[in-house]
């Protein structure tokens, strides 16, 4: 089954169960001070769970563009190194707002996976919350009893608070979750070690695919729980992982979500990617594979963020996007030998592939590809020199810690985000001094403030001549957007 058809099968199934199908919310959030990017399907419905407003329907389903690169969910460091965590991914979700509850949610999840998609029942494990008496949260007996109708008890795993209990914050709605995991190992491997032992153990072939959250409690200020007047269901399934399971492969990157992008990178760079079935590859091939995975992952995050209105910049969400793109550019430069912009060419492929379902990527294709191309050109102008400087610094460093001032110089003069410097150093078993970096950053801020401001009552006016103006997209490093601002 092609990924397009898998997505459609999910939405059709939940439509047949009375759900209203809605479009994905934008990946970038503009009006939520607590969250920069959508990192789960429920974010756009948060207010309904808090009792503010009423949804269009008590049953809703969709696929949500998610980004997990900052805050509570940050998977960036795993991306490229493992085969099932992405920066941007789609989360298929179905919701009940005070309507159906555990019985229907779990029955439908099981029916969809085993009867519609016909996944092998013997590869599936489920988990339920074990309870935590010290925090007043009970064992989820209901979910356990429901699952017993579908699977043998040895396939039901009791999970702890970290994996199997969801809370919005210290107070407010919360409740147990029930996850579904799939074991994609070979028959011989499965015969040797039970998949049960490998659930939630970071095994690349025994992965979580679906999380069903049951909001049934409200946590009060004193920490105690009370039953919510209306109980809700919030589910999230990793689309790319589901495609992996359905397409009989063992890496998300070997599904048709990623193969067209990988083929394009191969065509541009002349490098070859080896799929996950090919074992015992050389160290160099492994690096090539990681670089290709990083690039095809990151381009999706960056492209969809730009299409949703978030341009790369030097602050806030824009800087997160710039950092992701620079990480990809450097992987290309170092491991695929790409000295010219090329990532922008993947936007066309992405648009062909995802455009039918996400029209924004088609509508914004030219803008997205131009912005990425400019960003690439701009960073490539300083990348080589910066890497050379870093090499010299490393050669001069005794021990494993590079000076924070040098890391700051890379940031300030060569545009190296500090996590990129950290990543390159980590490849050499090294790090830099964070405290020194922050100190240099603060000193620089103080200097530029002193140089560019004079005080006139409660307004600060930037001194003409000291203001670096925005002169084009490739010169945003010193961008100053605001020329007058109120002193705080
Ligand atoms: P994991 O334990 O694998 O990190 P999670 O428990 O953090 O996943 P949830 O927050 O429960 O994930 O999200 C619901 C589903 O979204 C998961 O079951 C998984 O299939 C998918 N998912 C989560 N994070 C990612 C990611 N970074 N890339 C791709 N899919 C993901
Ligand atoms: Mg996670
Ligand atoms: Mg998990
Ligand atoms: Mg989970």
Automatic annotation (TrEMBL):
GO terms for cellular component: cytoplasm. It comes from the Bacteria. Its EC number is 6.1.1.7. Residues 1-488 form the Alanyl-transfer RNA synthetases family profile domain. It is an enzyme of class 6 (ligase). Keywords: Aminoacyl-tRNA synthetase, ATP-binding, Coiled coil, Cytoplasm, Ligase, Metal-binding, Nucleotide-binding, Protein biosynthesis, RNA-binding, tRNA-binding, Zinc. Binds 1 zinc ion per subunit. Its cofactor is Zn(2+). GO terms for biological process: alanyl-tRNA aminoacylation. It catalyses: tRNA(Ala) + L-alanine + ATP = L-alanyl-tRNA(Ala) + AMP + diphosphate. The keyword Nucleotide-binding applies. One of its GO terms (molecular function) is aminoacyl-tRNA deacylase activity. Its main location: cytoplasm. It is found in: Cytoplasm. Consists of three domains; the N-terminal catalytic domain, the editing domain and the C-terminal C-Ala domain. The editing domain removes incorrectly charged amino acids, while the C-Ala domain, along with tRNA(Ala), serves as a bridge to cooperatively bring together the editing and aminoacylation centers thus stimulating deacylation of misacylated tRNAs. Catalyzes the attachment of alanine to tRNA(Ala) in a two-step reaction: alanine is first activated by ATP to form Ala-AMP and then transferred to the acceptor end of tRNA(Ala). Also edits incorrectly charged Ser-tRNA(Ala) and Gly-tRNA(Ala) via its editing domain. Belongs to the class-II aminoacyl-tRNA synthetase family. This is Alanine--tRNA ligase. It comes from Flavobacterium enshiense DK69. The gene is alaS. The chain holds residues 1 to 488 of 878 of the full protein.
């Amino acid at each position: 089954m092609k990924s397009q058809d898998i997505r459609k099968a999910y939405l059709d199934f939940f439509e047949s169960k009375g759900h209203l199908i809605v479009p994905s919310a934008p990946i970038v959030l503009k009006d939520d001070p607590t969250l920069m990017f959508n990192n789960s399907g429920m974010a756009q419905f948060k207010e309904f769970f808090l009792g503010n407003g009423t949804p269009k329907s008590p049953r809703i389903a969709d696929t949500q563009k998610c980004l997990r690169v900052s805050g509570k969910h940050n998977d960036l460091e795993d991306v490229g190194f493992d085969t099932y965590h992405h920066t941007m991914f789609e989360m298929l979700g179905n919701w009940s707002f005070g309507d159906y509850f555990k019985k229907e949610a779990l029955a439908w999840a099981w029916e969809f996976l085993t009867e519609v998609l016909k996944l092998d029942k013997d590869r599936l494990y489920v988990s339920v919350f074990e309870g935590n008496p010290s925090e007043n949260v009970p064992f989820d007996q209901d979910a356990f009893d429901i699952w017993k109708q579908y699977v043998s008890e040895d396939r039901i795993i009791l999970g702890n608070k970290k994996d199997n209990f969801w809370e919005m914050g210290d107070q407010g709605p919360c409740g147990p979750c029930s996850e579904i995991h799939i074991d994609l190992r070979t028959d011989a491997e499965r015969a040797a070690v039970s998949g049960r032992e490998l659930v939630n153990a970071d095994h690349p072939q025994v992965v979580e695919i679906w999380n069903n959250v049951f909001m049934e409690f409200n946590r009060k200020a004193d920490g105690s729980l009370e039953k919510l007047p209306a109980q809700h269901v919030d589910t999230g399934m990793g689309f790319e992982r589901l495609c992996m399971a359905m397409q009989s492969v063992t890496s998300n990157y070997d599904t048709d979500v990623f193969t067209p992008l990988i083929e394009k990178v191969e065509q541009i760079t002349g490098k070859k990617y080896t799929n996950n079935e090919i074992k015992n590859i050389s160290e160099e091939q492994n690096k090539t594979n990681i670089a290709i995975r990083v690039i095809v992952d990151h381009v999706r995050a960056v492209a969809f963020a730009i299409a949703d209105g978030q341009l790369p910049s030097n602050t806030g969400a824009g800087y997160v996007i710039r950092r992701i793109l620079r990480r990809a550019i450097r992987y290309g430069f170092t491991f695929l030998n790409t000295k010219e912009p090329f990532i922008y060419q993947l936007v066309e492929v992405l648009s062909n592939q995802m455009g039918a379902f996400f029209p924004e990527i088609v509508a914004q294709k030219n803008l997205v590809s131009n912005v990425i191309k400019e960003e690439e050109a701009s960073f490539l102008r300083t990348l080589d020199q910066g890497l050379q400087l870093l090499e010299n610094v490393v050669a001069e460093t005794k021990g494993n810690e590079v000076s924070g001032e040098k890391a700051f110089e890379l940031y300030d003069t060569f545009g190296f985000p500090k996590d990129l410097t950290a990543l390159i150093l980590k490849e050499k078993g090294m790090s830099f001094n964070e405290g020194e970096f922050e100190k240099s950053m603060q000193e620089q801020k103080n200097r530029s403030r002193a140089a560019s401001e004079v005080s006139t009552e409660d307004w600060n006016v930037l001194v003409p001549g000291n203001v670096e103006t925005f002169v084009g997209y490739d010169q945003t490093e010193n961008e100053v957007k605001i020329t007058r601002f109120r002193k705080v």
